[in-house]
TrEMBL record:
It catalyses: tRNA(Glu) + L-glutamate + ATP = L-glutamyl-tRNA(Glu) + AMP + diphosphate. The keyword Isomerase does not apply. This is Glutamate--tRNA ligase. GO terms for molecular function: glutamate-tRNA ligase activity. Its main location: cytoplasm. The lineage of its organism: Bacteria, Pseudomonadati, Pseudomonadota, Alphaproteobacteria, Hyphomicrobiales.
Length: 457
């Protein structure tokens, strides 16, 4: 069996790190099993779905290193859903209901007050043809519910009906269909909630594994029943825990908080996002992993915790630093061009500064310092005269990694200064800053002539 997974966002906002977790769980699962990955846009809600969000989701996935094999749109498949509805109606598994939201709420409260489970009582099944005709005459349109297979002969006598599956993430799961309301599959305006289209698509697209957030566990009970009602073998299911903010709030596509796009714009590396999105809330420690292939090796769905995980964005910056510090020049060469960092000095420059940056963009100011000079620093009398002596004793060219040591050894002898007293004025004169990359590395990049130009007058 070819493993086929799908990531199924609704294009109603920007995807965030929690959505990235779902996408990556699927992508890594496919990578591990040489499977296929389908991006399915759940865009049945025409009012809220937007092309610009769909485009951005594709860009975000691409940025993370996820390249779907197939892209599908639910909005192009309404005929298929209508055919499935007809099939279910033909099998007597869909029935018309006319209740308004207020009526349903009233009944729900009544059931609760009678200590009955607050599920839909299938009252619509008792309507006579006259009553239905009367509703129609009033201009009311019915919605359609799926008659859950949780009874033997009498739908008003439900009995415990277990749907069980071995969850790819959570292990053995059981959902009791008698604890649930018959779900609405077609709304009164003819639109479809997510439940049925998803099953129809998963059948047609040959999905072998549905991996999604654990907010869908109860849906899975209903959907497995629907697969069977449509004579299809249900796929395997996996439900991962959700991420929350530090305050325990759920992440929302609409708020734009922690969107993948904003993290990218903020200079966070894709593998920092992927490492945290996948490893947080698992028994694996969160470390900066360099590639999705390596992450796939570390990815073990069953190691995922069952409770929600708090997500701390500052961890992203820490991971970012670790990743950048170990990034070879070839991997950033092109991106450095974007900051004007080109030419023969670009590689030694990168190797000198990479251990001192949090974000790639931090390179730009270092490049400016190295190539154009530092901001002006005022020195007191003692440091000023020390520096003048120092610059008068610059080693001759060629300059390399040893030049700094030769120079400072000479200065120790010459001036008696050592430690911070020796190094700090030099650092300030050369870079304008009191911390930064190793001066031994920077010095040959700056070059003798440019260094001399930094001699305080
Ligand atoms: N559009 C659904 C969601 O974002 C997809 C759930 C699923 O993967 O089945 O919640």
């Amino acid at each position: 069996m070819t493993v086929t997974v799908r990531f199924a966002p609704s294009p109603t906002g920007h995807i965030h790190i929690g959505n990235a977790r779902t996408a990556l769980f699927n992508w890594l699962f496919a990578l591990k099993h040489q499977g296929r990955f389908i991006l399915r846009f759940d865009d049945t809600d025409a009012a809220r779905s937007k092309q610009e969000y769909a485009d951005q989701i594709q860009r975000d996935l691409h940025w993370l290193g996820i390249h779907p094999d197939v892209i599908a749109h639910q909005s192009a498949r309404f005929d298929t859903y209508a055919a499935a509805v007809e099939r279910l109606k033909g099998a007597g598994l869909l029935y018309q209901c006319w209740e308004t939201a207020e009526e349903l709420e009233r009944r729900r409260r009544l059931r609760l007050s009678r200590k009955l489970p607050p599920v839909y009582g299938r009252e619509a099944l008792k309507l006579t043809d006259e009553q239905k005709a009367a509703y129609e005459a009033e201009g009311r349109r019915p919605h359609w519910r799926y008659l859950l297979p949780n009874f033997t002969d009498n739908p008003f006598e439900t009995q415990r009906t277990e749907i069980v599956w071995d969850d790819v993430v959570r292990g053995p799961q059981t959902v009791d269909l008698s604890s649930m309301s018959d779900p609405v599959l077609v709304r009164e305006d003819g639109t479809y909630p997510y439940t049925l289209p998803s099953v129809v698509d998963d059948i047609d697209l040959g999905i072998s594994h549905v991996i999604r957030g654990d907010d869908h566990v109860a849906n899975t009970g209903v959907q497995i029943a629907l697969f069977r009602a449509l004579d299809a073998e249900p796929p395997a299911f996996g439900h991962h825990n959700l991420l929350t903010t530090a305050d325990g709030e759920g992440l929302s596509k609409r708020s734009g908080a922690l969107s993948i796009r904003s993290l990218a714009e903020d200079g966070i590396e894709p593998m920092a996002v992927a490492s945290l999105a996948v490893l947080i809330g698992t028994s694996e420690s969160v470390t900066a992993v360099r590639s999705l292939e390596e992450l796939a090796e570390r990815f073990e769905p069953k190691a995922t915790s069952k409770s929600a995980s708090k997500f701390d964005p500052t961890e992203l910056v820490a991971l970012n630093k670790v990743l950048l510090h170990a990034t070879p020049f070839a991997d950033v060469d092109q991106r450095l061009h974007g900051f004007g960092i080109t030419g023969p000095k670009a590689e030694p420059f990168w190797l000198a500064v990479r251990a001192n940056i949090e974000k790639l963009a931090d390179c730009a100011s270092w490049w400016q310092i190295v190539t154009e000079g530092p901001r002006k620093v005022e020195f007191d009398e003692a440091d000023g005269s020390f520096l003048r002596v120092a610059f008068d004793h610059l080693p001759s060219e060629p300059w390399d990694g040893m030049t700094w040591k030769i120079w400072t050894d000479r200065l120790k002898e010459q001036t008696g200064r050592k430690g911070k007293q020796l190094f700090m004025p030099l650092r300030l004169a050369l870079t304008g800053l009191d911390r930064g990359p190793e001066l031994a590395d920077l010095l040959p990049i700056i070059g003798r002539e440019e260094t001399l130009a930094r001699r305080p007058g």
